[in-house]
Design brief:
The protein is an alpha+beta fold. It contains 19 helices and 23 strands. The structure holds zinc ion. It comes from Stigmatella aurantiaca.
Length: 754
Amino acid sequence: MTLSSGRGLLLGGVLLGVLLALLWLRNEPPAVRSAGAAPGGFSVHQALEVRGRLMEGMGPHRVGQPALRVLRDRLLGEFQKLGLSPQVQSTFVCSDYGTCATVENLLVRFPGRGPHAEGRQAVMLAVHYDSVGAGPGVSDDANGTAVALEVARHLKSEPARRNDIILLITDGEEYGLLGAHAFVRHPWANDVAAVVNVEARGSSGLSHMFETGPNNARLVGFYAKHTARPSTNSLAYAVYKRMPNDTDFTVFKAAQMTGLGIANIEGVVHYHTPYDDLEHSDPRTLQHHGDVALGLLRAMAEEDFSQPPPGDAAFVDFLGLFVLHWPVGWTPGIALLGLGLLLAGAYRWSREEPVTPRQLGWASLGWWGLLLLCAGVGFAYFKLLSASGAAPVSWIAHPGPALAALGLLWVSVFWLLCALIARRTTGTARWIAVWAWWGLLTVGLSFAFPDAISSLLIPVPLVGLAAVLVPRGVGRVAVVGLGTTVAGCLMFPLVFFLLSSLGLPSLPLVGLLSGLMLASLLPLSPARWPLGWRLPAGCAAAAAVLSLWALRLSPYSEQAPQRLNIVYRFDQDRQSSRWALEGDLSRVPGPLAEFQQGTREVTAPWDTKPSFLLPAESIGLTAPELEPLHVETVAAGRTLQLRLRSTRGAPFVSVAFSPAARLTSVRVNGQTVPAQKERIRNRYGQWRAVSCVTDAPQGCVVELSQEGSEPIEAFLYDESPGIPPGRFSRRAEWKDFVPSQNGDVTVASRSLKI
Ligand SMILES: [Zn+2]
C-alpha cells in the first residue's frame, strides 16, 4: 500500500471515526464501584447516604437564608457522628464582588505526626455548603461536602500523616467567595501549604483537574501518580483563566497557597437552577471527585512543603490512562527537538522520493486552507445557529444534528482541499508540509504559551521519531496512521472539553482542532477520488438536511430549560409595582405570554438589557433606606456614615453609587470593601455597588470617603427570595423554563441623593 493509493485514506478515515466513538464513550466518569469493592478507598455509597441526609427536603440555601443554618446544623451533626466537632468560624466579611455578609465556615483539623521543623504544615480540602437562590445545589456543592465527610471518616480511622489535614467547608461562595475571604484571615490559614478544591459547573461528567496555581509541578506530579482515572490538560487552566468564573481557590491562591481545583462540567444546563438536584446528579461524578480528592489529600499530607517548589508543569492526560507532564520550561526544547526529528524524517523521505518547492507550496496551501476553512466554517455555523434563533444560548437542548452537520461540512472541506492539491503534489510532499507546519506552529506557540499547547506538542516528537526510524513502503502509511492516532487521542478529548466548558461559541476552535486532525490524513489523498464529486455532494446534502432539522429544534427542553426569572418589583420612584421577566428573553414561553403585552424597560440605572414588565397589584412594600448617621466635611471632601437597611426585613440590601461620585474608600460595618473586580464594575456600568446580607433590623453601616462635596446619586434596592402568591403560582409546574442564579425574587428599590 502506498501513500496515495486511496485505501490508506479509507483506513485513516475509519480510524478517525473509531477514535471519535471510543473517546466519546470514554468521556464519562468511571462506573460506580460496588460497596466494599475498594477497601480503604472512597466509598460513594457512604457519600451518597450522607448527601441524602444533608439534602433531605432541602431547597435553595443561599448565604443569609434560614435553610443554610439548617444545613450547617446537619453538617455539624454528621461530623459529630464521626466523633469530630468542627470549629465554626463566624466572621463578617466583604469581598471584591462588593458583597458583605456574616459567614459561618466549618473547619476540622487532623493533627499530623510531624516532623514540624519550620512550624506546622497543613494541607486542606475546601468545599462550600451554600447554594445559589434558584436551586438546591446538590452537585454544586453538596457533592463537595459529601466528599469532605467521607474523607473525614477515612482520616479519623487512619494513622496521622506527616502534615496536618484541614477540612474547610465554606459559606457564601456563590455570593462572592465570602467564606474563602473569611478563612484566609483565620490563624490556620498561615499553616496551609496546599489546597484541593472540589467544585461543579454542571450535574455530571468527569472530575476534571482544571485549575492550578503557581509552582504546580509538585502537585501535578501527585495528581499524575495518585489518580486512577485522570482527566486534565494544562490548556484547560489557560481557558479557565479567561472565563468569568471563580472558585474559592481563586482567593486561596491570592493568599499564596498552592493547590489544585477539580470540577465536573457536564450537565451545565442544570447548573445554578432547580435541576441541580438529587435526581439529575450523576453518582459517578461524586465517586470520581471522591477518588481524586482522597488520593491527592493522602499524598499531599506526606509531602514536605518546606522544600523549595520545583516550578510549573505543562500536562495532559492520555486517554484517561496516565498523565504526561514535564517542566513547563522544557516545552520549547521538546518542540524544537520534535521539529528537528520531523525535518530529519522529511529529509529522509525526500531523498527517497524527491519533492519540489512547488509541490511543497501547494501542500502548505492545503494544510493552512484546511485549518482556516474548518475554523471559518465553524464560526459561520455558530453565527447561523445564533442568528436563526436555534441557539440563543451557549448550551442548547439538542446540539447533536448541528454538530453532525458541521462534521460533514468539515469532511467536505477536506475533500475540497484534497481535490485542489492532490494532483499537484505527492503524498510525501503533503506529509512533509503537514508535519513541518504542525512542528513550526508548535515551536512558535511554545515560547508564548508553553503550558497551553501540551496536546499540540506531543504528536510532534512522536511522529518525528517514527519518520526517522520506520522503513519505507508500508511504513510510510503507518507513520501517517500514527500521526492521526496520536492527534485524535489528544484532540478529541479537547474538543469534548471545549464544547462542555464554552458551549457553541467554541465551534471555531473546535473547527481548528478538527482541521488539524483531518490534515493528518492529507498525505493519504489519492490523486483521483474513486467517487469523485459524489462524496462531498453527499456530505453537503446530508449536512443541509441535518441543518434544517437543527434549525427546527427547540433550543430548550425539560432537561435543558430556558433560564427565566420572574421578579416582583416595587419601584418607589414611580410609585408602582410590576412583574418583571428577566434572564434569557429570546423566547417568551406560552404560560408567560402576557408579558409580551407589557413594556420593555431597564429596571436599574446601569441596566442595558431591558426586562419585560407587567403592571402588578401593590402588596404594600416599602423601599430600603439609606439614613445619614454622620456627615462631615473634611479638607479633601466629605466622609459619610450611613445606615443601609431594608424597611421590610429583606435579607439582601444593596446600594450603588453613581460613577460620577469620586469615592476613595467604602466600608461596611467597619470592614473595607475592596475595589471591585473589573468584571463586576462592568456589570454595574461602573456604578459602585455594595451589598449587605443581614437579618439585623438595624441593617448595615456604610462609611464613605468622598473627594469633593457634590451630592452623591445612589440607587438602593433590597431583595427577598420568592415572589408574592397569585399570578404565577403555577411556576413550579412549568418545566422547560426555570429560574436560575438568584431565582425568583421580590425587589424594592428607590433612588436618592446624599
Ligand atoms: Zn460551587
